[in-house]
């Protein structure tokens, strides 16, 4: 199949491109590089030993998007493009709604014009909101979201479900990711945050390499096994393979289906620190500070629907996630800035 990856220069899109190519598919990437770097495309090409058609355009720019669809016969779309910083979305909500929702609407219009009906969407566990019990399962009512970012995912899911009602040929999988971490085992692609990272894994690896002096652990008074926050971390290569499985499913089915991509297992911040130290033989100095506003104490996936419908489950261990993160960081101390 010829698969269009919007946001394919980003963290998850780049790893997914590699897995699709590995399975014999062709990919076309559209990305405006607002949160990524063109060297990521070069690295995907290095790993997969082939040239990737890449277009530096905004997905909301439908005139140029149409040209891409005219030039390439697209069979399916995986829509990663979007702004994703939860805290920033609280500060600049209009920008988040405009970018994430407009790009999806434009994409849907062009897909309809070209009669493309298979769609995979990057949704998020944040759609489960603040009041659901854990583990989160897909039958729970989503909503009650805690940030504009999460609401964009919630609204886009609804838009896609509405399209599936009227277009009987449309097939969409709403993949609700938990906490993607890790890097490609080659060390050539990985997460490349701008400035000081917000998220735990890139922060820890920058402490390990000496760019940051110590990790600040946000709270040790949560009702969890050791008081620190618990999350369902999933290796980005497992997550990427989940997209390959989701597309195989989408081809054979119609309608909209929400599916969690997580491991089903929660680890605490202290679990991560200890495992990262042991797996990589490094020291992570840390200090306990106050809770971060907006953080939940603990959540993880009920990962059974993905097994049932996609015949997919995460295979990699927490040690793999820590080892691969560190290999990427060591080999690329300044990310993609070659
Ligand atoms: P990322 O920022 O690395 O990748 C997103 C890519 O989209 C970037 O390359 C960016 O330049 C591009 N982009 C953004 N707006 C665009 C637009 N209008 N037109 C063209 N390109 C545009 O993020 P990621 O971690 O790879 O996440 C991919 C998707 O998965 C996002 O939609 C994100 O919200 C979602 N998601 C991510 C996580 C996570 O923790 N990383 C968790 C759940 C869901
Ligand atoms: C993990 C744990 C922190 C940094 C975010 C988004 C979410 C999703 C994935 C898109 C928490 C603790 C962190 C640090 C710490 N993205 N922590 N010190 O917040 O679970 O999820 O990324 O959909 O929407 O919110 O991930 O990696 O920031 O935090 O103690 O410097 O690590 O409190 O318990 P989070 P994270």
Structure write-up:
This protein has eleven helices and 13 strands. With 338 residues, it is an alpha/beta fold. The strands form four sheets. A seven-stranded parallel β-sheet has the order 3-2-1-4-5-6-11, sandwiched between helices. The longest helix has 21 residues, at 93-113. It starts with a strand and ends in a 7-residue tail after the last helix. The mean pLDDT is 97. It binds nicotinamide-adenine-dinucleotide and UDP-4-deoxy-4-formamido-beta-L-arabinopyranose (WQD). UDP-4-deoxy-4-formamido-beta-L-arabinopyranose (WQD) binds at residues 84, 86, 124, 126, 179, 198-200, 203, 215-218, 229, 231, 269, 292, 295.
Give start-end ranges of low-pLDDT stretches: none
State the separation between the terminal residues, measured CA to CA.
32 Å
H and E string: EHEHEHEHHEHEEHEEEHEEHEHH
| Overall geometry | globular
Q: What kind of sheet is the major sheet?
A: 7 strands, parallel
Helix content: 40-55%
What is the beta-strand fraction? 15-25%
Cofactors, ions, other ligands:
nicotinamide-adenine-dinucleotide, UDP-4-deoxy-4-formamido-beta-L-arabinopyranose
Assembly state (oligomeric): single chain
Rg: 19 Å
β-strand number: 13
What are the main properties of this structure?
two-stranded parallel sheet, binds nicotinamide-adenine-dinucleotide, 41% helix, 338 residues, 11 helices, alpha/beta, binds UDP-4-deoxy-4-formamido-beta-L-arabinopyranose, 13 strands, seven-stranded parallel sheet
